[in-house]
């Protein structure tokens, strides 16, 4: 009897194809997972249209609160970056404060990628 090797794990291209190409580049799998999970759960987010919605000003908000707020108004393609320029990952989102965002507050299609720039709560913007 000949043993059959297990199937190879899908690479990023295959996973992207499985999710309709919805994976986004960002700080890593976390941003991608948020985007694809939102697009497949409950029919909201990616794939459900890109109608306009008001993107609030997240400056001064807790990073987790800003992400929750963005999703509550329809924006699911989210990324977060270290505003200090040190390239740190935001592991505990509640320990970070948003300094700025791209794009600026305004009305955008809900499939617009939103990047939140944050520093640790003990630091200043």
Automatic annotation (TrEMBL):
**PASTA domain mapped to chain residues:** 49-120
Pfam families per record: PASTA (PF03793)
Region annotation Disordered: where it falls in the sequence: 1-59
What Gene3D superfamilies does the annotation carry? 3.30.10.20
Q: Which domain of life is it from?
A: Bacteria
- List the coiled-coil residues: none
The regions listed as transmembrane in this protein's record are: none
Q: Where is the composition biased (Low complexity)?
A: 26-39
| Gly residues composition bias: residue spans | 40-50
This one is known as PASTA domain-containing protein
Q: Native species of this protein?
A: Streptomyces pyxinae
């Amino acid at each position: 009897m000949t043993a059959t090797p297990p199937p190879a794990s899908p690479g990023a291209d295959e996973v992207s194809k499985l999710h309709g190409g919805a994976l986004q580049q960002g700080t890593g799998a976390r941003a991608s997972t948020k985007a694809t999970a939102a697009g497949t759960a409950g029919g909201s987010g990616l794939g459900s249209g890109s109608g306009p919605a008001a993107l609030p000003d997240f400056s001064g908000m807790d990073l987790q609160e800003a992400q929750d707020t963005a999703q509550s108004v329809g924006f699911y393609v989210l990324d977060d970056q270290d505003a200090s320029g040190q390239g740190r990952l935001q592991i505990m989102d509640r320990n970070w404060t948003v300094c700025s965002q791209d794009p600026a507050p305004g009305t955008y299609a809900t499939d617009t990628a939103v990047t939140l720039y944050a520093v640790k709560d003990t630091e200043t913007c």
